[in-house]
């Protein structure tokens, strides 16, 4: 076969040559409804998740967990377990007595407890054995002597420990060791402006804790090779941070640690910090010389938690007669559970992310996160800001009613605008919030139906905003926040090496679309290799909605370096300006004469002949001058913010208190949809998850009057109710593209923002339906039914319809 | 104590020695290396382990392995023809109905069972058929859409098959395969393998 014949066979998926004129202008891949690069593997059962991996000689590990919520460890006897045939290694806390924590300033936990246990489920010892049965048998043989301490289960109680031993030692003498963080920030003159407001709405809200519930339980596999290199495969969404913490805790050179993230079966923030099993498989592998795997049971996933913090929130919102928000005063008590996790950031986020998309003339928040003897809370999709957003958007609904304004109109009147700073000095660039409101208003036929449906049916609206990544990494450093490497092989195959964590959101596909767009290859010419720390440049992981914005920009950076090289090579051949050489659809062609063309492989080969092997790295770093000028002003700062509006339609059965959400319309400003299919998937998944928190989910623990204090009330997927296909409402996704000036092709986040306003939209719709305010989550049948018992339900509803309940309005 | 069990999985007769208390899921995953079926809860709550036993969806994590002896077990690995995806897999791929993909094998098996007994299901039929499979990523919308699409594709193929002679049938099949390959954008190689 001649080389020409071979070329004929190449780029079979290229765009037909006669259609090249259509590719001269605009984007050719970005914005298209493409398949995901990892779709076929996941659909055929061939994708490998951590528990699908088996290594020769692999042992199975189990972790012994505390039965007490708060106790001192007096002694641990592992002799019987070690003597059990089939047991290869046992490890206790003393062997890994280095405190860790995802936030470097609040390292307060150990892989296994050293002196104290702080919640039922805290890990105390671990074993590795030939099989799971033997490991299970072995942990039952470990004898632990505890001195039981009084537990703190409620945050108010934890604030007042008195003589009782606090959960952690106080950072400074005299401080309360039950407090993780207290933040108080004030912008403008809140008290004066509240006093000058025409209307002040006061409200108290409760957001119940919820947990991520990925369908894949956490799993990790460790292997320590004879030359001293540790490899950990883990269902994590932060391989880079895991690699660093493994090195610190196990006292290993970080260069001798390899972390690999196989396919991950859902995370939602629940796998965004190191967990005990990752340290345990590593240490047990080091002790036994064999690979060790630990797979959490579903119960352990519920106890590992790190989910949504329960919050008690009090707000006073002052406004002028025209609806302009003059002041917002918030006080938030956050139930953190036993460890800090991301709690320092949570405490800030509970206030910092509220001001957009609105203008506040003044704002104050006072947030306190306290420890309790329950599993630690952490970042769940919409970290820290979902709870205050619920409360505030219900406040706005009450305000609109007090002012006899349409709640859509009230939100429009307070719109922040584009290229503005919020009251707390966060820089907002693109802002499509008004278009979001308009889209849901139209789709829901709001004007004809709001306040006009029959008793028991209602519509509600809410809005929100979220970050597209954080301006600062978790550990301070000057290096890029995101990096990527692209290599072009002689066949035309493009390899993208990225540390971005694919957790189902589509980050592998996102970088493939960008590489295909920039380099002009068909999508099936792009291979993505992600999250193997031996191979890929550092990326910080899948949290804070950072991947599309940051890794997308890094990918453009790398790809354009290569594109320029190829364009210049061809331009020299053809004697045209290099901008005239278009790489698209599997071709390099002349924009002014598409008959002059090369297939893209030939173009790459010419460039390689001239410049050597084609490879480039690219990176992205955030602007460092766009945060608030006060202490804490960097937290909440993001290079761009997404905006969302929801309208929910509900039915309430007033005899049972059962709320049915029939339909949710969600409009989301994602800047630009790199692939609308994936953006819709994120909008629907987020909206569903908000709906689930609104109506069903409760991560709650028993008190001493209802069983063993601190015991999870329902650690199973049957009793912790997440929505089935029959529960989930119909959803309509409306994509708004504001084209952000700094996002990749204008893109911003879509994975977390569209959760927030789903919840208050449902709360506000319930009010429209029955005239009863639901200020505590979830809106479960008992809660709704009880709320309906206070007075004649019909009277309440009629009052709401005729202009509102004045009781919660303190007019001047 | 181990038991020796004879299973028919995806048409293949297999003999496997597993601990006697193993579930069908454990036998598939750890005995036969068929890791496509997933364990999400290990107590029959989530549906990720759903397989078909004699064409009926079964929660393999709470089915003792011996219950499947001498019966036909079908798993996600047996769905696709050697040359391409099953119409349901193809529709899931085009609609983005698999995000993390962990619940997907179980959902596909429930959907296969549905379409085999009800060629033209309504949306409510689909919701009912999937009510034992929890998905945490998608909010189900894209899954419903994909199943509706696959039902259309499948019934069109069936109608064509009834009308066509065997030769015409082959031609129709080739055309519809081509249509599927291009309708949702080009298929892309799997990443990270």
Describe how the helices and strands are arranged.
The complex is a heterodimer of chains A (812) and B (193).
Chain A: H1 3-9, H2 39-44, E1 59-65, E2 71-77, H3 79-83, E3 87-92, E4 116-117, E5 123-129, H4 132-140, E6 143-148, H5 155-159, E7 179-187, H6 190-196, E8 199-207, E9 219-224, E10 230-234, H7 239-250, E11 257-260, H8 276-288, E12 292-295, H9 298-304, E13 311-319, E14 325-335, H10 343-352, E15 363-370, H11 386-402, H12 407-413, E16 420-421, E17 427-428, H13 433-443, H14 446-449, E18 457-467, E19 482-488, E20 494-498, H15 507-519, E21 526-530, H16 547-574, E22 581-584, E23 587-590, E24 593-599, H17 600-611, E25 614-620, E26 641-653, E27 658-669, H18 676-695, E28 730-736, H19 753-756, H20 758-770, H21 781-787, H22 793-801, E29 809-811
Parallel strand pairs in A: 1-12, 10-11, 14-15, 20-21, 27-28
Antiparallel strand pairs in A: 1-5, 2-4, 2-6, 3-5, 7-15, 8-13, 8-29, 9-10, 9-12, 13-14, 16-17, 18-26, 19-20, 19-25, 22-23, 23-24, 26-27
Helix pairs in contact in A: 7-8, 11-12, 11-20, 15-16, 16-17, 18-20, 20-22
Chain B: E1 2-9, E2 12-19, H1 24-31, E3 50-53, E4 56-59, E5 72-74, H2 87-95, H3 104-117, H4 123-129, H5 141-163, H6 166-183
Parallel strand pairs in B: 1-5
Antiparallel strand pairs in B: 1-2, 3-4, 3-5
Account of the protein in words:
The complex is a heterodimer of chains A (812) and B (193). Chain A has 22 helices and 29 strands. Chain A has a 7-stranded mixed sheet, sandwiched between helices. In chain A, helix 16 packs across helix 17 (600-611) and helix 20 crosses helix 22 (793-801). The radius of gyration of chain A is 28 Å and the shape is globular. The model of chain A is unreliable at 805-812 (pLDDT under 50). In chain B, strands 2-1-5-3-4 form a 5-stranded mixed sheet, sandwiched between helices. In chain B, strand 1 and strand 2 form a beta hairpin. The longest helix of chain B has 23 residues, at 141-163. Chain B starts with a strand and ends in a 10-residue tail after the last helix. At the A-B interface, helix 2, helix 15, strand 21 and helix 18 of A face helix 2, helix 3, helix 4 and helix 5 of B.
């Amino acid at each position: 076969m001649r080389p020409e014949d071979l070329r004929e066979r190449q780029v079979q998926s290229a765009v037909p040559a006669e259609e090249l004129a259509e590719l001269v202008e605009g984007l050719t891949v970005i914005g298209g409804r493409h398949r995901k690069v990892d779709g076929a593997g996941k659909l055929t059962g061939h994708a490998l998740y951590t528990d699908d991996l088996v290594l020769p000689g692999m042992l199975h590990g189990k972790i012994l967990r505390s039965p007490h919520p708060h106790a001192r460890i007096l002694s641990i006897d592992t002799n019987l377990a070690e003597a059990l045939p089939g047991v290869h290694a046992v490890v206790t806390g003393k062997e890994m007595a280095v405190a860790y924590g995802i936030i470097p300033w609040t390292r307060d936990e150990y892989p296994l407890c050293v002196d104290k246990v702080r919640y039922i489920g805290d890990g105390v010892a671990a074993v590795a054995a030939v099989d799971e049965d033997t490991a299970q048998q072995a942990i039952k043989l470990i004898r632990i002597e505890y001195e039981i301490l009084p537990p703190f289960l409620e945050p108010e109680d934890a604030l007042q420990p008195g003589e009782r031993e606090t959960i952690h030692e106080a950072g400074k003498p005299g401080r309360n060791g039950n407090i993780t963080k207290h933040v108080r920030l004030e912008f403008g003159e809140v008290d004066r402006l509240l006093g000058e407001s025409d209307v002040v709405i006061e409200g108290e809200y409760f957001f119940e804790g919820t947990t991520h519930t990925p369908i894949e339980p956490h799993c990790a596999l460790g292997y320590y090779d004879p030359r001293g290199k540790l490899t950990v495969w883990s269902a994590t969404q932060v391989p880079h941070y895991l690699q660093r913490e493994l090195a610190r805790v196990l006292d290993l050179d970080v260069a001798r640690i390899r972390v690999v993230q196989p396919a991950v079966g859902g995370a939602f923030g629940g796998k965004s910090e190191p967990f005990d099993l990752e340290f345990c498989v590593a240490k047990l592998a080091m002790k036994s010389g064999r690979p060790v795997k630990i797979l959490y049971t579903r119960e352990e996933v519920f106890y590992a938690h790190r989910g949504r913090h329960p919050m008690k929130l009090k707000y006073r919102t002052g406004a002028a007669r025209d609806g302009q928000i003059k002041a917002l005063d918030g006080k938030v008590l956050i139930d953190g559970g036993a460890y800090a996790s991301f709690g320092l950031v949570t405490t800030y986020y509970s206030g910092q992310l509220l001001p957009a998309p609105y203008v506040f003339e003044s704002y104050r928040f006072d947030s306190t996160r306290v420890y309790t003897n329950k599993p630690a809370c952490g970042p769940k999709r919409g970290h820290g800001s979902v709870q205050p957003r619920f409360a505030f958007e219900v406040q706005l609904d009450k305000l609109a009613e007090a002012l006899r304004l349409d709640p859509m109109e009230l939100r429009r009147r307070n719109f922040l605008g584009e290229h503005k700073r919020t009251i707390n000095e966060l820089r907002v660039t693109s802002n499509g919030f008004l278009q979001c409101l308009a889209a849901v208003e139209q789709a829901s036929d709001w004007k004809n139906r709001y306040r006009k449906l029959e008793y028991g049916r209602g519509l509600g609206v809410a809005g929100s905003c979220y970050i597209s990544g954080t301006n600062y990494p978790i550990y301070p450093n000057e290096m890029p926040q995101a990096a990527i490497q692209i290599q072009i092989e002689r066949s035309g195959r493009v390899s993208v090496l990225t540390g971005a964590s694919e957790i189902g959101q589509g980050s592998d596909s996102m970088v493939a679309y960008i590489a295909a767009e920039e380099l002009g290859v068909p999508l099936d010419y792009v291979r993505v290799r992600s999250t193997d720390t031996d191979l890929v440049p550092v990326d910080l992981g899948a949290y804070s909605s950072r991947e599309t914005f940051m890794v997308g920009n890094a990918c453009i950076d790398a790809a354009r370096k290569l594109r320029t090289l190829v364009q210049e090579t061809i331009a020299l051949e053809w004697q045209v300006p290099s901008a005239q050489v278009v790489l698209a659809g599997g071709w390099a062609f002349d924009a002014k004469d598409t008959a002059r063309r090369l297939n893209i492989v030939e173009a790459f080969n010419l460039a390689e002949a001239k410049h050597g092997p084609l490879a480039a790295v690219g990176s992205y770093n955030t602007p460092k001058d766009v945060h608030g000028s006060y202490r804490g002003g960097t937290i909440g700062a993001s290079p761009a913010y997404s905006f969302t509006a929801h309208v929910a339609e509900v039915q309430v059965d007033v005899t049972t208190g059962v709320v049915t959400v029939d339909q949710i319309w969600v409009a989301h400003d994602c800047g630009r949809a790199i692939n609308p299919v994936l953006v819709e998937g994120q909008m629907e998944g987020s909206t569903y998850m908000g709906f689930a928190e609104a109506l069903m989910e409760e991560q709650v623990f028993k008190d001493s009057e209802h069983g063993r204090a601190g015991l999870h009330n329902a650690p199973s997927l049957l009793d912790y109710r997440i929505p089935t296909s029959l529960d989930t409402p119909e959803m309509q996704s409306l994509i708004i593209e504001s084209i952000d000036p700094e996002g990749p092709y204008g893109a911003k986040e879509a994975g977390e923002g569209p959760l927030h306003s789903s919840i208050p939209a449902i709360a506000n719709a319930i009010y429209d339906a029955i005239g009863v305010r639901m200020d505590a989550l979830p809106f479960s049948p008992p809660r709704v039914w009880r709320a309906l018992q206070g007075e004649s339900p019909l009277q309440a509803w009629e009052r709401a319809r005729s202009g509102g309940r004045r009781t919660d309005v303190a007019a001047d | 104590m181990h038991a020796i069990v004879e299973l028919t999985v995806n048409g293949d007769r297999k003999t496997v020695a597993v601990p006697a208390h193993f579930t069908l899921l454990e036998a598939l995953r750890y005995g036969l290396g068929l890791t496509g079926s997933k364990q999400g809860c290990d107590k029959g709550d989530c549906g990720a382990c759903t397989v078909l036993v004699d064409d009926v969806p079964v929660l393999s994590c709470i089915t003792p392995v011996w219950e499947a002896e001498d019966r036909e077990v079908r798993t996600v690995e047996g769905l696709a023809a050697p040359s391409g995806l099953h119409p349901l897999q193809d529709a899931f791929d085009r609609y983005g109905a698999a995000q993390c993909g962990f619940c997907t094998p179980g959902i596909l098996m429930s959907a296969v069972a549905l379409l085999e007994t009800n060629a033209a299901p309504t949306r409510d039929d689909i919701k009912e058929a999937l009510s034992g499979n929890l998905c945490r990523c998608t909010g189900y919308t894209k899954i419903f859409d994909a199943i509706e699409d696959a039902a259309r594709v499948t019934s069109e193929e069936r109608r064509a098959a009834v009308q066509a002679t065997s030769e015409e049938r082959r031609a129709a099949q080739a055309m519809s395969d081509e249509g599927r390959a291009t309708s949702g954008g080009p298929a892309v190689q799997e990443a990270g393998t």
